[in-house]
Specification:
By secondary structure, the protein is an alpha/beta fold. It has 2 domains: 2-80, Alpha-Beta Plaits; 85-318, Rossmann fold. Helix content is 30%, strand content 17%. The chain is built from 10 helices and 13 strands. The protein has helices at 2-9, 23-32, 71-74, 87-92, 111-119, 133-145, 189-197, 200-221, 243-251, 253-258, and strands at residues 12-16, 36-37, 48-51, 58-61, 78-79, 101-104, 125-129, 151-154, 173-176, 229-234, 260-262, 291-293, 303-310. Strands 6, 7, 8, 9, 10, 11, 12 and 13 form an 8-stranded mixed β-sheet that branches. The radius of gyration is 19 Å and the shape is globular. The N and C termini lie far apart (46 Å). The structure holds S-adenosylmethionine. S-adenosylmethionine binds at residues 85, 106-112, 129-132, 135, 157-159, 177-179.
């Protein structure tokens, strides 16, 4: 099964939680544990690590490295998070200021929430919504373990939140990482088998329903009065949930009313080479603003990232 091989090639990624220690501290710690700096692809027989080329404070280890008994992991100093899943918070780039107001609309288990909190240097206010009660429990546990002091977790459906509620009047940045098909995740073989058995019609139906929910989430985020930047991401490889949703969001009344357009490539991990699929966009050049990660080719899971900003002129071809 292809998923097996691809999963075996993905390095073990560990994000250094900079709210608890520094990258230098982490490197000293791993060095004292017998790890030496190396370059991927790693040999499994050597205890080694490397610095990630795109994400600050992210370390790579050989794919089968385990951290479950590691003291740094257990104390929240390390967050085990795939490289691609670190992109959304970096692209959102929330401010690190006392008067910063940010929303993570779909937070559990909290990998991206803890990342946002770290980028905000534990300052300002980060509202983290999670509608599922059980997953909300996991989120609060993770926030406490990671030492997040600027996060207010809310066990609520983001779609029921009133954008004109004064509590959210100063929110400028929103992260949307909603439920998706999960088709990009290569280490969950159960999922791959499941989709293989699903016929095309059933899959299309499922994707259409997911896409309509995902679009609703983006449109809702666009209604917050002061929001200037919205990052939408999925761990799906299907254009229906990715370029399709982004294209529909750009054409929505909410985008027009709010003056939202895609952020230019320069502001969306410029150095990352794999971009959106041009043929899936009404304006093919818009694909340059989008990020894709291909499982098996990018040493990550399959992933998609887009970034909407307010007040940037729409591409001439769409006008
Ligand atoms: N961002 C998370 C992370 O990096 O750890 C993963 C988020 S997961 C893909 C999507 C989450 O959104 C699920 O926990 C799901 O229960 C939650 N969710 C889905 N719809 C929601 C809604 N309308 N409001 C709040 N949470 C929602």
């Amino acid at each position: 099964q292809a998923g097996d091989t691809r999963a075996a090639q993905i390095p073990r990624y560990a994000r250094v939680n900079t709210m608890m220690w520094t990258l230098d501290d982490a490197v000293k710690y791993f060095t004292s544990q017998g790890f030496t700096p190396g370059t991927p692809p790693f040999s499994e027989s050597i205890k080694t690590f490397a610095y990630d080329a795109h994400i600050p404070n992210l370390l790579l280890f050989p794919p089968h490295t385990t951290f479950h008994d590691d003291a740094a992991y257990k104390s929240g100093k390390l967050i085990l998070q795939d490289k691609a899943s670190c992109f959304p918070a970096v692209v959102l780039a929330p401010p690190a200021r006392k008067d910063a107001f940010v929303i993570d609309a779909t937070a559990a288990p909290g990998n991206k929430t803890t990342h946002l909190s770290a980028l905000m240097q534990n300052m300002g206010k980060l509202y983290a919504f999670e509608r599922d009660q059980k997953r909300f429990g996991t989120l609060t546990m993770m926030l406490s373990r990671a030492g997040c002091k600027n996060v207010e977790p809310l066990n609520a459906d983001f779609l029921t939140v009133d954008p004109s509620d004064p509590k959210f009047a100063k929110v400028t940045h929103i992260l949307l990482d909603p439920s998706c098909s999960g088709s990009g995740i290569v280490n969950r073989l159960d999922h791959l088998l499941e989709t293989e058995e699903e016929n095309q019609e059933a899959l299309d139906d499922r994707l259409t329903k997911l896409a309509s929910f995902q679009l609703m989430m983006i449109k809702h985020a666009m209604k917050f009065p002061k929001v200037g930047k919205i990052v939408y991401s999925t761990c799906s490889i299907h254009a229906t949930e990715n370029e399709g949703v982004v294209g529909a969001a750009l054409l929505s009344d909410e985008a027009k009313a709010g003056g939202f357009a895609l952020a230019p490539r320069e502001d969306v991990l410029l150095q990352w080479q794999r971009r959106g699929v041009p043929g899936e966009m009404a304006v093919p050049e818009d694909a340059e603003s989008l990020i894709r990660c291909s499982p098996g080719e990018d040493a990550t899971n399959g992933f998609f990232v887009s970034c909407f900003v307010r007040g940037v002129a729409q591409s001439k071809k769409r006008k």
